[in-house]
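Sequence and structure are no longer studied apart. To make this concrete, we show below a single chain and its fold as tokens.
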Amino acid sequence: MKKIVLLLTLLAVSVFAAGGDMGVEGQRSVNMSAIVMFLIFVGATLGITYWAAKRTKTAKDFYTAGGGITGFQNGMAIAGDYMSAASFLGISGLVYMKGYDGLIYSIGFLVGWPIILFMVAEQLRNLGKYTFADVASYRLGQTPIRTLAAIGSLVTVALYLIAQMVGAGQLIKVLFGLDYEVAVILVGILMILYVTFGGMLATTWVQIIKAILLLSGATFMALAVLYSFDFSFESLFAKAVEIHEKGDAIMAPGGLVSDPISAISLGMALMLGTAGLPHILMRFFTVADAKEARKSVFFATGFIGYFYILTFIIGFGAIVMLTNDPTFFDETGKLIGGSNMAAIHLSQAVGGDLFLGFISAVAFATILAVVSGLTLAGASAVSHDLYANVFAKGKVDEAKEMRVSRIATIVLGIVAIILGIAFEKQNIAFMVGLAFAIAASSNFPILFLSIYWSKLTTRGAVIGGSLGLATAIILVILGPTVWVDTFHNESPIFPFKYPAIFSVTVAFIGIWFFSITDNSERAQIDRDAYEAQDIRCQTGIGADGATAH
């Protein structure tokens, strides 16, 4: 174990060092403070992985850290898992470009959390063991439901992973002067290390450290921006309106999403998708009981809400502090690295090279924490849902299941590296949106109705969930982001960018219709089992407790 960690660490560092001289267009000169802070972070997290590996002995340890994480720790880890580079760089970049309308993503990402708090968290913890498929299949047919849940999880994880890996490559190319392929391979190696050896315990602490660093850095940036305006929001916004090419329009809605169907559809995808993301749902099994699960959502919502307020200030700060400074623009007058780099450039404007180094390392840590959580969720879908419960019908020993999970982690890591390199030149903006749309259209309806609707049947869940999944994928392909931007057709077949309003509706109606028309013997078993499930769901009697270490 020690030798493997040491070997892979040396490989990662040597790849990093070798890449430093590869000057390509669009890259920065190497920022030494960023590299030093990055290496400190990697060293600390590998130390945590080694510590966690010695404590990861059972499948419960591997998947859920033995259920021994406190509500506060889990809330911080959920925030670390959820505040991705897309949130930090993407939303501040959107506010920098579009102003007020960039907030639609912040609000959408945030309002999913009350749904999780009041409708899902406690029930998940009481009914599940390792994955959300445990809950969905609690009283329904194991094989079809777990298969569909695993497919929904893996598709969501794959899309999210591609977006993160491409983001990592582009970000590190600009920040560290590394080659794109080198950056993607580096992320892949570290991600495999954290998950394979440290399991959920290592992943949790990587996410907690990352959340603390990100919240600290973003707080400093926001305070530095407000300090320049004597902590007056009015002065900040007035200056932004004066400087921005769109003037007053940046303070009005309609700049990013102009029609009501797109606005509602995007809101639905972000809100319901949050409650269907496998790597987020998995975190509720890491706490001891339902009370801690509720506490963890409470803390996570606070941290995430605070963070999104900061991204808004950072976005407007970037408008004011970057727009008239030629240092941050190329010869064509465009922001170096694109609008997603607005927060990174602002860190240099307010704190010089040292703070730029810190924020660069934090941005990298952000990607590592998110991909680790995603990989663990994908590996558990393969090993726990598909291998242990579908193929082996539950007759499998823990050691073998953990071995399959570790193999799945390595395979997922390699696939993520290959896809990250393959999608380098593609428009990946739609991928996170599609991941949320699929989570909202397939995972969430099955999970929600399996908990709350007594007449749900296996047939209804499988057909309705499959219809939601297929509708989301087909409509995104036929919509503007893929049909026009990627396939370069003149006009889209489906006019809207965001399919959730249609695909979620199809899923719920499909599940309802195919359940109420199901008169099979299996349907009767499904309905009869609801009462016993509801008692455990509300009381937690019979739920798994924490493992003593």
User: Anything to note?
Assistant: Residues 5-26 have pLDDT under 50 and may be disordered. The longest helix spans residues 342-391. DSSP finds 21 helices and no strands in the chain. The two ends are 21 Å apart (CA to CA).
